[in-house]
Amino acid sequence: MTKKTNLIFLSLIFLYSFYCAIQLGYTWDVLFYYEIGRERLDYLFSFGSNEVDDKVYARRFLTGAYATISAFFVQFFPRNYILEAIYFINLTFSILAIFGIYKVTKELFNKKIGQITFIICFFNPIFFGHMAMNSIDTIIAFSNIWFFYVILRYFKNQHNKQKKNNYVIYCGLALGLGLGVRYSFIITIVPILLFVLFEIFYFKIFTSIKFSKKLFLLDTIKVVLIAYFFMVLFWPYTHPNIFVLPFKLAIESFSFGFGVPFILFNGEVFQPHQLPKSYLIVSLFYKMPEFFILSFILFGIYFLKVSSYFKNELKGYHFKVFSILFIIFFPNLLLFVTPYSAYDGLRLFLFLIPYSCIIPSLLVYFLYKKIKINLYKITFIILIISQIFFYI
Known about the structure:
- By secondary structure, the chain is an all-alpha fold.
- It has one domain (24-391).
- It is 68% helix and 2% strand.
- The protein is built from 19 helices and 2 strands.
- Strand 1 (263-265) and strand 2 (268-270) form a beta hairpin.
- It is globular, with a radius of gyration of 22 Å.
- The relative contact order is 0.10.
- The mean pLDDT is 89.
């Protein structure tokens, strides 16, 4: 597609998403988070003179970074359109998250696969349904994806001092925003941190010859400091002692009852701690479009053929693919080996959806390139029909 065609297409889907956003009514927690954000915004602008509400005990566990940032931008909208403003800001971050997964895929594989990933992710019904109304989990996805992308760019540009310093700041802000939404965000980046270690000490696909491990360690410390102070900035309950209270409140929150008391799963009602260990993978199987399920099955069937094709085109293909698969399945693994459960349903794992779109994109790209072979042509047609069937 030409640039003009791309621009028209993007404009249409963005307008459609905005139209869908303004049709939404109030969710049960939208004003709760807005009030938290506005309260903390007043606190920051008063340099701590305006006290925060201490009546609702659970508020002390909420870091509130995004709620505060969102409340700041809401001030630029007319008062009669507060809800629409909140949803528009959420939608903007969600679209940027999808743009981020395009950038990640482009860095890992190529531009065409990135474009396919963008389209598949944008029209994923689970992610699309949360784009405007979810003020938490879409931001977790945004932070996770851009944190990963900035790391990839850092690897390639560590030798360039100006670019390196910029990426250190961006990385710290992405990490800080994620922690500032939910401090358990740190768990979601474990696969990315493992990717970093394998890349630096073994594969060296993205790092240049001049890559310095010592400099990387120093920059990592800078990233952690930026992220930490960004998080506590919007968390006034920690301000009496920013070095102790964040950890104390985080530990205390583990024994606090968050979320809904009951969850409907597979036609049965469960308390959150009673959910089956297979909850996440079964929920994704039921809620994902047929196209997704079929893509993963076919990717497994054609795995050797797909690998044979890509390993000649892309350096480190297997490392990249297994890294993406590990990001997708890591939360499932955690649910199986830890006593913790998903206290508030599938939305907690929304950040997995954009990464999950990469696997179907690889398959679609491979089938399109091999379209002259009858078997792959038939498979490609079946996939397209399954996608169209979902929207009929």
